[in-house]
Amino acid sequence: MKSHNPFSINFDQQKLNAKRRLKSIRNNDLEVLSQVKSFHTQPNTLSKETVQLADVQFALARELGLPSWAKLKAHCFDLSLQKTELSNRNIALDSDISTLHIRCGHDIQNRLKNSGFAGEYLALIDPLCIGPIPSNEKHFVAIRAQYVKETLLPIAGRSDSVQQIAEAEQGNIDMLFDRRFKRLVFWVEHDAYDQLMLLRCLTLLAGNSNKTIEIVELNSFPGSQRFIGLGQLPEEAFRLCWQQRKRISGKLETQALRCWKALVSSNPNTLVEMIEEDGLDCLPNMKNVLTRMLQELPHCETGLSLTQHLALKVLQNKKDKLTVKEWFVEYQKQEPLPFLGDMMFFALLLPLAHLDKPLISCESLHKPWREQTFLLTDKGHLILANRARVEQEYWVGSIQVRSNGTWSWDHSDFGSLVYFP
Question: Which secondary structure element, helix H or strand E, spans residue 216, and what is its range?
């Protein structure tokens, strides 16, 4: 039996849900009343006696990510229509022109096919959100391949050579320019993994007038769960998203080129200046991504990146050891802009177990990596208490963090950038 998708909202079910909530409130269920208040714009006006069905419906719509009950009804109607079209489809949605669908990973490949798309699929899986982003285009692919070889493949248990990785990535890039495809469609979310891939590709494709280039870009989707990525969505949602795709303009391309130029600078002030400008209206999610990247610089007191800080806080608050799988799930709940897969998460945290004075200890190295268990060490507790600082060497885009001379950040939404010589 197919499980219900939390983003496949049925309007009749929501009407019943609202009526049940109102009945519970009338029966003095203070927990339900509190939930309604938490999503209502005028919570102080609501009580067991005064709350109306319209109030409950309004709060429920906002809880599901929509501004009003009317918007919820319209959204549910659109989803229902697309669901009906799924069973009646005769012509592929992208059949008007030869199309290549581009995505960070394979997570929606089958979903697109089942949603009524016939175009080919390209998974660009190089995670530019971690490791170095070289400024030298000539050596870009090789440097990234070396990083993947050293950092990710040992965890995956693979032994591909740097040359094999580089050739595969270059083959993917070449596919963007394949004359078979007259339209390229990027399916992206609001996180660093997707947005940096998009920047990279738009930079490579700049000035290419032979292809139609379109973007399906989401930073939210109505549902009963937190939206993290396209892979969560039901098939009818992909058809709905397709209707909202946008074609890149000269203005968007110019903004992408400026962002990429800032990204490959070794001075983080270029990113700060980009964030402070008001000129990224065509890339609505980019400022949050660039800010989140700066938060990966070492904290001015602890020396931890924000990812490391959030992950260690999870261990600090747990009495028992956690498997990597459990650890990652708990970390995701704290992450303000989820952008890591579980393997990338593990790769960023593992160096903390290999320091002269480790911050985390692994209790089960003989197990598969997702099942390995970790605890916070005494040193880790000291770091989180701001009673010690860890020195590390790693990359944040084109910024090299070194033990001698590095930029630091205070991890706030827009914090203080300081250079320590």
Answer: strand 212-217
